[in-house]
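Honest question from a wet-lab person: if I give you the sequences of every part of a complex, can you actually get the arrangement of the whole thing, not just the pieces? Trying it with mine:
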Amino acid sequence: GAVVSQHPSRVICKSGTSVKIECRSLDFQATTMFWYRQFPKQSLMLMATSNEGSKATYEQGVEKDKFLINHASLTLSTLTVTSAHPEDSSFYICSARDWLAGSSYNEQFFGPGTRLTVL
Amino acid sequence: QKEVEQNSGPLSVPEGAIASLNCTYSDRGSQSFFWYRQYSGKSPELIMSIYSNGDKEDGRFTAQLNKASQYVSLLIRDSQPSDSATYLCAVNTSFQKLVFGTGTRLLVSP
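Yes, you can. This is the full assembly:
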């Protein structure tokens, strides 16, 4: 159980284009999903918290107009990197929290990640 | 002071030995703690969670929590080469955010 998928696993795009990344919880419903970014040899940094049916909450320093998040259902959240630039190249990882589990514990299950390279 | 601190390593142990990984955190209001394993180029995989003081065992893994000392550790018994990875300590802070340490790289030699 607690499987999270992410698509695509790898994307290479030209500077200025937009890229959409999908995150799905496959065997549970997730009222809350999270988007992280990880640069080489660094730890995971939370970008935003995505709640089903409401606007995402962004961490300080993360541009909400650049990183568009939509959480339209209990099993799907999407992250769109708009007008991507080389400095946006990173490993983007989503996670999901099972709504049946105690939310106070904040146990999160991670997707396999999407490696974005912007040329 | 970083919110979650880990020694970056690498921690080198021979096959069959016990690997001991440590983590300290700054937010005294933190209530839940996790250990994730991350192989190079892959996303983190949850291997242990612990919520109360003491030890929690799961197979070859034992997590230890001491809230008074703000310290959490992970012991891996009978270490295998396949355990070689980066181990991330994550703390659910009083702000309900999961904060990760920078990870400890473990190398298990055959």
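Two things worth pointing out. Chain A has no helices and eleven strands. Chain A has a mean pLDDT of 90.
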